[in-house]
TrEMBL record, chain A:
<keyword id="KW-0067">ATP-binding</keyword>
<keyword id="KW-0813">Transport</keyword>
<dbReference type="GO" id="GO:0016887">
    <property type="term" value="F:ATP hydrolysis activity"/>
</dbReference>
<keyword id="KW-0406">Ion transport</keyword>
<protein>
    <submittedName>
        <fullName>ABC transporter ATP-binding protein</fullName>
    </submittedName>
</protein>
<keyword id="KW-0547">Nucleotide-binding</keyword>
<dbReference type="InterPro" id="IPR027417">
    <property type="entry name" value="P-loop_NTPase"/>
</dbReference>
<dbReference type="InterPro" id="IPR051535">
    <property type="entry name" value="Siderophore_ABC-ATPase"/>
</dbReference>
<keyword id="KW-1003">Cell membrane</keyword>
TrEMBL record, chain C:
<protein>
    <recommendedName>
        <fullName>Iron chelate uptake ABC transporter family permease subunit</fullName>
    </recommendedName>
</protein>
<dbReference type="InterPro" id="IPR000522">
    <property type="entry name" value="ABC_transptr_permease_BtuC"/>
</dbReference>
<keyword id="KW-0472">Membrane</keyword>
<feature type="transmembrane region" description="Helical">
    <location>
        <begin position="244"/>
        <end position="270"/>
    </location>
</feature>
<keyword id="KW-0812">Transmembrane</keyword>
<dbReference type="InterPro" id="IPR037294">
    <property type="entry name" value="ABC_BtuC-like"/>
</dbReference>
<feature type="transmembrane region" description="Helical">
    <location>
        <begin position="200"/>
        <end position="218"/>
    </location>
</feature>
<feature type="transmembrane region" description="Helical">
    <location>
        <begin position="71"/>
        <end position="89"/>
    </location>
</feature>
<keyword id="KW-0813">Transport</keyword>
Amino acid sequence: MPDARLSGTGLTLAYDQRVVATDLSVAIPDESFTVIIGPNACGKSTLLRALARMLKPKTGVVHLDGSVITSLPSKEVARRLGLLPQSSIVPDGITVADLVARGRYPHQRLMRQWSRADEAAVAEAMRATDVAELADRIVDELSGGQRQRVWLAMALAQETPILLLDEPTTFLDISHQIEVLDLCADLHEAGRTMVAVLHDLNQACRYATHLIVMRAGTIVAEGDPAEIVTPELVREVFDLRCEIIPDPQSGTPLIVPEARRRVSTASA
Amino acid sequence: MRPAVTMVETAEGPEEPAKGPVWARPAVLATGLVVALAALVLMAMASVALGARSVPFATVIDAFLAPDGSNDHTVIRELRVPRTLLGLGVGATLGLAGALMQSLTRNPLADPGLLGINEGAALGVTLALGVFGLSDPAVYVWFAFGGAALASVMVYSLASAGRSGSSPVRLTLAGVALGMVATAIASAILRMDSQTFDRMRFWLTGSLAGQTADTLVRLAPFMVAGLVLGLLLARPLNTLALGDDAGKALGVAVGRTRALTGVAVTLLCGAATAAAGPLWFVGLIVPHAVRALVGPDQRWVLPYSAVAAPVLLLGADVVGRLIARPGEVQVGIVWAVIGAPIFIVLARRKRVAAL
Amino acid sequence: MNVRLGPYSVRLAPRALLAGVALLLAGCLVAVAAISTGEFTVPVPDIITALFGQGTPVAELIVSKLRAPRVVTGLLVGAAFGMSGAIFQSLTRNPLGSPDFIGFTAGASTGGIIAVVAGGSAMTIAGGALAGCVITAALVYALAFRGGVQGYRLVLVGIGANALLLAVNSYLLTRANINDAATAGAWLTGSLSGRGWDHAIPVAIALAVLVPVCLYVARPMRMIEMGDDAAKAMGIRVEPVRAVAIAAGVLLSGVATAAAGPVIFVALAAPQLARRLTRSPGVTIGASALMGAVLLTGADLAAQRLLAPTQLPVGVLTAAIGGTYLALLLRKDRH
C-alpha cells in the first residue's frame, strides 16, 4: 500500500437520517490522480465530501497527515486540502481576478490581506488555467467552460498539495470536459494529488492513475484502471453488458456497450 | 373558548374524504364536496348566530321568520347577515386565488397576501378613498384591480431578477418587500387624513366588520366573475403543471392561460381586498390542506379551495368575535396568528428550493 | 490598489475609496445643513463656536441641545441600519433580505408597543424594542436551525414571524387606550425628532463594540456568499461565523430601532445603493454604513423641511426610499 496523506477509516455516512454508506475505508495514494466512479446515488460525492470535511461522518474518522482532520484548525486544513464543490454561487458583479483571489483566504489574515505570495499564487493559477486574459471580465458573463476554469483557478490559488473535485465536468459540453480533465492531468503531473468524482467511465479510465469504483455505498474495486476494469465489473456495478477494448488514443480500457439489436446493415 | 370553536371547524371541514387514495374516485370527491358545502352552510349559520352580543337561538330564527325590528333582530339582519355573506365571498375568492397562484407559479408558498397582491390592491383602495375621495365600492374596486395587477407584475419581475431566476423563496421575499412598501405608502397617505384613517384603520388589518350590504352587492359581480373564470382554468392549469414546454407540447395555449389566470387572480384579490382589506394566509393554507386531501388534480383542488376557505374564514371571524367580548379581534389578526405558525412549519418541512 | 507595510498589507479598490470619501462628504454636508438651517438659521461658522461653548446662548441651545444630537443620532442609527442590512443581504444572498422583512424590526416594534402600553418612559421603550428584537431573532434562529441555518430557511421562518408579529402589533394598538395608541403610533413610524445625547450615546457605544465585530466577520462572510461548501473548503467555520454575523446584525438593528423607532427601508436600500456606488462585488459593510447614515439624515432633513412648518415623520420619507429602491431593482432587471 502506498503512502496516503488522506484516508478514511470505518466511515458511516448519512444525510440527516438517510444512511448512504456504512463502514467505508479508503486511502488516497499520494501524488495519484484518483477518480471515484459509480452509478447515480452510489455515495461517491458523499464520500468525497466526507474526505473534504464537508460532511461529518456518523462513525469513523478521516485522517490528514496522520491527524484526525476535525482536530486540525480549519484554515490549516484549507492550506493542505482544497475542494472544488459541485455548485458554488458567483457573487454578483465579481471579476475573474477577484474571484480567483478569494482562493487565497486560508493564507491571509485580517492585517495581511494581500502579500506578494498571494499575488504570485493568483497569477500562477490564472496562467495554469488559461484565464489570465479574462482577468477583468465579469464572471457572470463567461461561458460554462470558462467559468469552470475560473473556479478551478480559485481552487489552485489555494496552493494545496491535495485537490478534491466534485463532478468538475457536469454541465460542460464534451470539448470543455476534456479541457478541464486535461488541466487536471497537468496539475497531477506537476506533483499534486488529485481526487475527482466523475460520471463517465471512459474518461475515468483514461485519466485516473487510481480508480475507486462504488456501488450502493460500498467500494467494489479499486486500483489501476487497466487492471480492475473488466466486463464483469461493469456488469456488476452499472448493470451493463459491454466489451472492453484498448482506447485507440491512450491504450486505457474503453467500454463499448453491447448492442441490444444488430445494426441493420450488418444483416443486410 | 377558541379551541372549542376551532375543533368544530376541523370536524366539519375537510375531514370527510380522508380515506385511501381517493383522487381516483370522482364519486367520493363529489360527495366530499357536497359535505364541504354542508359544512359551509353550518358555519354560515354559526356566524349569524354567534357574536359579541349573545342572542338566543330562537330569536335568531325569529329574526328571519318574523322580524319585529327589535335590537337583536336588527343586529342579525343588518350586521351579521351581510358580514357572513361578505365572509363567504371573500373566503371563496381568496381560497381560489391562492390555489390558482400556487398552481400557476408552481410555488407552494404563493399567497395573495404574502406576495403583496392584496397590499397592492389595498394601496389602490387607499388612493381612491384617501386621495380621490371616491366612496362607491363599484368604482374604487377598479383601483383595487389596478393595484393588484401592478403588484402581480412587479413581484414577478422582482423575483426573477438576476441570473438564478425565480424560486419560491425569492418570490416570497419579493412579495413581502413589495407588500411592506405598499402598506407603508398607504399608511403614510392615511396619516395625512385622520378621518379616512379612522374609517380604514380596521380595514387595513383585514376585517369583515363595518361593511354594509350595499358594498357586498356592488362587489359581488366581480367576485362571481373571478370565481367562474378561475374554476374554468382547472384543465389547462393541470397540463401546465408539467412545465411550460410540456404544456405547449400537449396543446395548451401557455400565454393565454397565464394571462387569464392573472386576470382571474386580479379580479379575485382586488374584490376581496376592497371588501375586507389585505388578508394573509387564507390563500396559502387552504389549498395546501385541500391538496393533501384530494391530490393534485386542479379540477378538484380549485372548487374545494373555494368552498373550504370560507368555512375557515368564517370560523376565524366567529372566533375573533367571541374571544374579546364585548370588543372583537379582526379576522386578519386571527388568521395571521393561526396562519403564521402553519407557514413556518411548511417552510421548515418542505424542501423549498434554495435562493 | 495594495497598501503594504512590512508584513502587513491591505487591499483597497480605488473606486470604493473614492465612493467612501464622497459619502463621508455628503454626510458632513447633510449634517451641516441640518444643524444650520431651520426656523432659526445658525451660520456655519457659528456652529463651530457654539459646539465649543463660545457662541451666543441661543445658538448654543439650538446647536448643542437640539440639532446636533438629532443629527448625530441620525448618522449613527443610519449607519447601524446600513450595516445590519448589509449583513442580512449577504447571509441571504438576496438584495431584499433585509431585517425589515424577516421579523426583527416587527419584533422590536412589538417590544416597543408593549413598553408603551405598560406606561414606560422613553428609556423603557428603547429597552423594550431591543429586547423584542433580540428575542424574535433568537426564536427565528432556533426555528430555522436544522444542522445549520441556511439563508433561505432564515428568510422563510422570518417572514412567518414577521406576519405574526405585525398582526400582534395591530392587535395591541387596537386594544390600547387612545393615548397609548397615539404614542405607540408615533413611535412606530420612526422619528428622530426630540432625540438628545442620551439617545445618541448608547448607539455610539453599541457601534464601538459592533463595528470591529462586523469588520472581522466581513471577510469570511464574503466567502460564504459563494456557498457553504466553497467557504468550508477555504477553512471557514461557516456556522459560527454565521451565528456571530446574525447576532451583530440583530443587535445593530435592535439598538437603532430602540433609538429612532422602526424606521424601515434604510437597511433595505443602503447596502445595494452603496454597492452601485462602489461597484464592488457583493455588499460591503463599511460603504453600507456610510450610505445608511447619509440616507437617514438626508431623509430626516427632508422630513423637517419639505412641508415646513409641518414636520413629517422620517418613516414616511424612508417608505418613499423603499419604493424607489424596488423600482430601481426592477429597472436593473431589464437588461
